[in-house]
Design goal:
alpha/beta; 5-stranded parallel β-sheet; 3-stranded antiparallel β-sheet
């Protein structure tokens, strides 16, 4: 199975070199020169892993990794010219799986990439989460009715990304600012109407009673959270802890 990788770096020559080298190894590669483009690509097709430069022109690489990590457990490798122990610790704490210092040998990066992908393969984790009367497959990106109702539910790209973000963080409060930055990108922190519209759309499609939601919960003045509904959903997510 072909692995899809997102590679983000502000240096055009290095970005091209990574694209060529990774493609030659059989990976499907999407490249981005900045955080905004990277988030847009990730929203369109969730990658299996990402290589992220920490020095991006429009946002810090740590902010980008935090955004990706909030809705995905994909392996993340950070690239940086800084090798101080404090820098490495900060990046790993932000969610990176590995840290490679520039300049680096391409063979080393490829070996580290293979290692983090192997760890992900062993990790497992649930693919399907129950939301109300629907089963959400986070791998296939589908929403299908349960309990004898086999109809599929169509979600817009933003609704899907918002739902996936919440479902990958069960019971956790995600602030409006976090969601806006992670889904719509830097510069959208104040557009809370985007969240209200898309949350309302999700509730009307998935909640039995949209006016009294059981799963997609608003915490007034703070943000939103996904409350797993039923023992099946809870036990599925317990495999991650």
């Amino acid at each position: 199975m072909t692995r899809h990788l997102l590679v983000v770096d502000h240096e055009p020559q290095l970005l091209r070199a990574l694209d060529v080298s990774l493609t030659a190894q059989g990976y499907a590669v999407a490249t981005a020169p900045d955080a905004t483009s990277a988030l847009r690509l990730a929203a369109g097709k969730a990658p299996d892993g990402a290589i992220v430069d920490l020095d991006l022109p429009d946002a810090g690489g740590i902010d980008l990794m935090t955004g990706l990590r909030s809705w995905s457990s994909m392996p993340l490798i950070a690239l940086s010219e800084h090798a101080a122990p404090a820098d490495v610790v900060e990046v790993l704490d932000a969610g990176a799986d590995d840290y490679v210092t520039k300049p680096f040998a391409m063979e080393e990066l490829l070996a580290r990439l293979r290692a983090v992908l192997r760890r992900t393969d062993r990790g497992g984790g649930p693919r399907t989460v129950t939301v109300g009367d629907y089963a959400v497959d986070l791998t296939a990106c589908t929403v299908v009715g349960e309990a004898g109702r086999g109809e599929s539910v169509h979600l817009t790209p933003k609704e899907w990304q918002l739902l996936a973000t919440l479902l990958r963080n069960p019971g956790r409060l995600l602030t409006g600012r976090q969601l806006l930055r992670n889904i719509w990108g830097p510069g959208h922190d104040q557009h809370s109407n985007y969240l209200r519209i898309n949350i309302s759309g999700l509730r009307h499609k998935l909640e039995p009673d949209p006016a009294h939601p059981r799963c997609l919960i608003t915490e007034p003045g703070m943000g939103y959270r996904f409350e797993p509904s039923g023992d099946t959903a809870r036990s599925a997510w317990e495999t991650r802890s």
